[in-house]
Specification:
5 helices
């Protein structure tokens, strides 16, 4: 049970970071998506709400499914990192490792 609470706290903190350090996330955004700042704020808000939702048994299942859906959508960002034209220079192994770390909390 400790892991569930830890996961909730981590997602909540990372959601807050979307608001306090937006410039970190900007280069990661795919160029074909519009309104980067808005999408960063929305994803941060979702992480905060879902992270808090994990902490309560009444909303835990819904929140976990929400996080799974969110992580699937975030795969767009990780695939985008692989293209040299994005200027990030992130290797395939590093991107794969990052994706694996993000999905560990979902039991994949």
């Amino acid at each position: 049970m400790f892991q569930i609470y830890l996961m909730g706290v981590i997602y909540t903190i990372l959601g807050i970071v979307h608001f306090t350090n937006t410039r970190f996330y900007r280069p990661l955004m795919p160029k074909f998506l519009p309104a980067h700042d808005l999408l960063i704020y929305l994803s941060g808000g979702a992480e905060i709400l879902l992270g808090i939702g994990i902490l309560f048994p009444q909303t835990r299942v819904f929140s976990l499914w929400g996080l799974i859906a969110m992580l699937i959508v975030f795969l767009i960002v990780h695939v985008n990192m692989l293209f040299p034209s994005n200027g990030l220079g992130i290797s395939i192994p590093k991107t794969f490792k990052t994706s694996l770390i993000q999905t560990q909390g979902c039991g994949f």
